[in-house]
Amino acid sequence: NAGVTQTPKFQVLKTGQSMTLQCAQDMNHEYMSWYRQDPGMGLRLIHYSVGAGITDQGEVPNGYNVSRSTTEDFPLRLLSAAPSQTSVYFCASSRQAGPGNTIYFGEGSWLTVV
Amino acid sequence: AQSVTQLDSHVSVSEGTPVLLRCNYSSSYSPSLFWYVQHPNKGLQLLLKYTSAATLVKGINGFEAEFKKSETSFHLTKPSAHMSDAAEYFCVVSVGGNYGQNFVFGPGTRLSVLP
Fold first, then answer.
1. Can you give B28-82 as a three-state secondary structure string?
2. Residue of A41, A43, A54 best to disrupt the B interface, most CBs of B under 10 A
3. Which of A59, A89, A103, A114 is the most buried (most CB within 10 A)?
4. Would you give per-residue pLDDT tens digits along chain A (114 residues)?
5. Residue A43 CB: number of other CB atoms within 10 A?
């Protein structure tokens, strides 16, 4: 019953450092995505993927990179961390990208950039 | 373009009284609609979803929601609030045609339950 697994759960970075948030799902879902959640702003889409080898930008992609080499994994890379990237990050997946598909979320990664 | 409005950023009820969390959407397509709940420091959990079958949808933990196309609403209700219902609730619309914005989230409503 793993579902969507994110690591790490908590991370503190210094400005300018890089890091990767890991995301894996074991449901053979085609669609995977990353969101950030900030107070009063709900969830905003960073990047998404509709299948292995296919990624695209969401609403707030600047400062982040993604890749999708396998169906299971969808890591999010922060290239040069900035305090504005302090946020809670959620990885999510669904069977397909079409309407009616339920989206499943990981437990979240709390990131602080100092 | 699709959008979701949650009319209240914060709702406070007493334990044992009814809960109403309001959601209105706009969509050019026939939408699928979801409610998710997020407890503090946790991920989002699916409460219920509407996908063009019955307009009254029953979810987990006694919640239900009614899809009203004429009002473009999908309000979440529960007859009797429990302390464990205190959480953040998100209304989500899912549409086809644009994979990147396939899931559009409302800003969330924080539910407080008073003893």
1. CCCCEEEEEEECCCCCEEEEEEECCCCCEEECHHHCEEEEECCCCEEEEEECCCC
2. A43
3. A103
4. 679 999 999 999 999 999 999 999 999 999 999 999 998 778 899 999 999 999 999 889 999 999 999 999 999 999 999 999 999 999 999 998 777 788 899 999 999 999
5. 26
